[in-house]
Amino acid sequence: MFALVDGNNFYVSCERVFRPSLVGRPVIVLSNNDGCAIARSNEAKALGVRMGHPWFQCKDFERDHGLVALSANFALYGDMSERMMVVASSYAPRQEIYSIDESFLDFTGVPGDLVVMCRDMRARILQWVGIPCGVGIGPTKTLAKLANYISKTTERKPGSYPQKLGQVCHLGAISQDELHAVFAATDVGEVWGVGKRIGAQLREGGVSTVLDLVRLDASTVRRHFSVVLEKTVRELQGTQCIEVDDQPAPKQQIMVSRSFGHAVTKGRDLATAITEYTSRAAEKLRGQGSAAGAIVVFIRTSPFRKDDPQYSATVTVPLLRPTADSALLATSAIAGLRGIYKAGFKYAKAGVMLVDLQSTDMQQGELDFDALETPPGHDREVDQGVSGSALTCHQSGQRGRAKLMSAMDAVNGRYGRGSLKLAGAGLEIDRKGWAMKQERRTPQYTTCWGDIAVVRA
Amino acid sequence: MYSISQANSSTDGPPTPVPVVAVDAAWVKSLLGSVQAGFPSPAEDHGVERIDLNKELIKHPQATFLMRVRGASMREAGIDDGDVVLVDRAIKPSHGHVVVAVVDGEFTVKRLWKRGSNLKLQAANPTYPDILPRDGQTVEVWGVVTTAIKSMIV
Fold first, then answer.
1. Do the beta carbons of residue A193 and residue A212 sit within 8 Å?
2. What CA–CA distance (Å, rounded) separates A182 from A160?
3. By CB atoms within 10 Å of each CB, which of A244, A256, A281, A451 scores lowest?
4. What is the DSSP string of A44-58?
């Protein structure tokens, strides 16, 4: 059995831990440059604020309904995510972190009532970290993901599903009739991996609910759609067949993490792993035409080796400007790793997550002061027509890098993943500080000494 | 940064080229963890480490948060204006604990007084009133204060 644990309206919930006065009020978190809504409280959803709703269109809600809009605070979200993930990881032998606020727990071989265990886990995460979660349980990841959706929807819209499925929903523990009723009440578009386009095609063909989809013959699905959708159907029917690499990517971030085959103790080996994961993540990032505004790096020991000293840490490294450049991202990730690595621990898992994603065609240009300090011949060799001005030099450098990156992706696409790799982390560029517009950012309560919350005495 | 020298400095004739690699010493040290001294140490696995305040003071790292105190209502409990408190949300609050509570959406630090279902928040300073939840007012305990850090003027 798998469980998917997912923080409710995660960014908003993180903000509310330190500003309890926001509880019960409509709150949204805005993307970089305060562009559009990337997280909404239930109250904001009820007002009609959509995901990706541009901020300038929401201003009426601020005036008329007291909507509170905050700038994204990824340093806070990265730290709260780590706390939540570590608490969840102590409940199952294997955990796979899927996104900043979601992880799959693999309960294979675990005895006992999973619903009771997961209710306990949910209560502990809420009590210890302050984040309310939804937990979905099912025999496959696709069913666990669907169960998670049902657990949250039941809580948010009472009456949409039987009340007992709220907060913790176990689709493997209800009767066949109940399961079919739940499937029939759920839109096909809510299934993991069924995007807008495929959803529309399915509906055209008369497949509008999950029940309709489950009843399709898997091989027919393969003929009419794809192997990917066939796997989805098989998973809904209860057969495990989605591997980690087949999983649909999370929407708002790109995540690459692995458990190590054997414990890793050396920082050098961790650095190699982090560099490799960052390259993979950057490749996915470029594949979807995005750039990342920050990178989250985490390392941890195994909570199941109870005799070993335990350590886990996460760091969020903000980037000076959003980038999709593997080398810049890897350098930043290694700089982050350097800050959290401690010798003397047996590391079991590490990962990177690219967050604060935005499309590359709407990136902001800016004067690059680093370029002024660039050693002669460094960036310039990629462009013959150097004019001497820092800005031109930087822009040509960017063009060159973009070419380099797409060449790298092409080689890896043709000769297999990892054919062409970054040579470790040779560059030493620390990119600190947020250069972007973040007028409404809350303090970095958990990662900056000067920013900790104030309590009245 | 390391600079490599000496090796050839006393010899006559042209110096042999020495590979020079820019290395950040602190980073290398952090990566290596322990320095190889040439022979194995029998005590390697039981290394003596400097006391780590995080380890001593924070029992539940995932549940512990820091807050800065403003105000004088807890003076007689040893918590002064400007102190930093460690707040552990994993500890079940009970009578007598110093807690961070949420009153009308704001954080306040007080001593929890709890008898049966009666609850109040006591100040540790006679010039401040206790807080008794009024009808309909919710008082929520956010976490239990385990430690106060008081920085002296130096």
1. no
2. 9
3. A244
4. HHHHTPPTT-BHHHH
Residue whose structure tokens are 């820092």: A390
> For A276-301, how does the pLDDT look when each residue is reduced to its tens digit (9 = 90+)?
999 999 998 998 888 998 999 999 99
Count CB-CB contacts under 10 A for residue A18: 23
Between B33, B34, B100, which is nearest A455 by CB? Answer: B100
What is the pLDDT, as a whole number, of residue A423? 55
pLDDT of residue A358: 83
Rounded to a whole number, what is the largest CA-CA distance in chain A? 73
User: Nearest-CA distance from B124 to chain A in Å?
Assistant: 9
**Residues B65, A446: C-beta atoms closer than 8 Å:** yes
A375 touches chain B (CB under 8 A): no
Whole-angstrom distance, CA of residue A20 vs CA of residue A73: 17
**Residue A199 DSSP symbol:** H
d(C-alpha A157, C-alpha A171), whole Å: 19
Which tens digit of pLDDT belongs to each residue from A398-449? 556 777 777 777 777 666 665 565 655 333 333 333 334 567 889 999 999 9
**How far does the CA of residue B52 sit from the closest CA of chain A (Å)?**
12
Spatial separation of the C-alpha atoms in residues A349 and A176, rounded to whole Å: 38
Active site residues of B: 73, 110
Determine whether the interchain pair A455/B105 forms a contact, defined as Cβ–Cβ distance below 8 Å. no
Closest CA to A299 of A245, A353, A249, A354: A353
The Cα A414–Cα B58 span in angstroms is 51
Residue ranges in chain A modelled with pLDDT below 50: 364-396, 425-436
pLDDT of residue B29: 46
Rounded to the nearest 10 degrees, the angle between the axes of helix A267-287 and helix A390-415 is 90
What ipTM is given for this predicted complex? 0.76
- Helical packing angle, A267-287 and A326-340, nearest 10°: 140
Q: Are A122 and A130 in contact (CB under 8 A)?
A: no
DSSP state of A217: -
In the predicted model, is pLDDT for residue B30 greater than 70?
A: no
